[in-house]
Every structure is written in C-alpha cells, then in structure tokens.
Amino acid sequence: MGFRFEIPTDIPEISKLVETAFLDLEISQNNEHRILDALRDANALSLSMIYEENGEILGHVALSPVKISSGDGSCFGLGPIAVKREERHRGIGSALVIRCLEMLRTSNASACFLVGNPDFYSHHGFVADSRYTLPGVPPEFFMVHTFRDDLPAGEVSFHPAFFVE
Ligand SMILES: CC(C)(COP(=O)(O)OP(=O)(O)OC[C@H]1O[C@@H](n2cnc3c(N)ncnc32)[C@H](O)[C@@H]1OP(=O)(O)O)[C@@H](O)C(=O)NCCC(=O)NCCS
Description:
binds coenzyme A, 24% helix, eight-stranded mixed β-sheet, Aminopeptidase, single chain
C-alpha cells in the first residue's frame, strides 16, 4: 500500500490504467500507454511510480529525459500521469507530482517540463515561462518547474517515444 516504483509485473496494470484514464480526454491521442512502452523499450523511463491500495494500482506517473537547445543536460519531462477515474480528487495525482519533484530536486535536476492543464499544475510550482518553448504546443499549456534560477532559455524536445502512434 502506498507509493513505490514500478516492477515488471505491474506493467500490464499500469498500461490499462493509463489507457483508460485518457480515453475521454479530447486533447489526447490515446497513445499514452504506448508512449510508456516506447520509453521502456528505449531505456528512457527515468522514473515510473505507482500508488496502490489493497493491491490495486490507482495512480501512475512517469519521468523521462528531455533535451533543451541551450544544451543543459539535466532536464526531465513529467508525464503521462494518470489516476483511476473513481479515485480522482483525493490528492493522489498531487502526491505523485510532489514525489517526482522531490526526487528531481534531490538528484540536482535543472528543470521539469510538462504539457498540461495549468489549473492543476500551477498548484505545484509549474509556470508557463516564455523562455522555454515546445513547438506546436500553445504556450499556456507548456509549463516548467525550475530548480535553479539560471537555466538558459531554449527550445525543448521530449523523447522520440512521445511521437509513437
Ligand atoms: C490529472 C489527474 C492525474 C489528477 O489526479 P487527481 O488524483 O484527481 O489529482 P488531485 O486529487 O491531486 O487534484 C485534483 C484537484 O485538486 C486541485 N488541486 C491539486 N492540488 C491543489 C492544491 N495544492 N491546492 C488547491 N487545489 C489543488 C486540482 O486543480 C484539481 O482540481 P479540479 O479537479 O477541480 O481541476 C487525473 O485527473 C487524471 O488521471 N486525469 C486524466 C489523465 C490526465 O489528464 N492526465 C494529465 C494530462 S496533463
């Protein structure tokens, strides 16, 4: 019970949770579970954490490396993140985000980027910052949480796994 890292036997349940969580989301291409598979295959899943209760996985979050054109080597992307529909608004999503940020901070990461709803992520120190851009994404939905003040501006690219069909 609680938060822990993914183990191999979790993978089918995580995949189902993530696929189902995004089903009714208009902006989703419903490929998030395949993105996770592609990140795993590429050895680019920097973190895969679950929240479980009574042996059931209720929430999941992933981190993967992102590149920034300024060349800083320690930036990460948060997502996908998903909580089982019936278990939302209990703070599970927030707790997963907070744990990711704690881990990145203690591992001396420079920044964490994501594409998401500002209503949710602004509670966790994410801001839309015009110094950082992600081509094709409206600036208000491209958000960053920086761990240092002097991160050079640049264009950000997520891992190629995010472009899986
Ligand atoms: C996004 C998602 C992971 C959130 O999970 P959750 O467990 O419901 O999240 P929480 O319970 O921590 O937060 C839910 C609510 O609390 C609000 N909240 C979170 N932290 C807060 C804080 N510190 N202070 C005040 N409000 C807060 C959020 O804005 C949200 O409000 P809303 O639902 O009215 O918009 C979940 O809704 C989900 O799986 N959605 C489908 C997949 C998805 O959209 N993933 C994210 C893509 S960007």
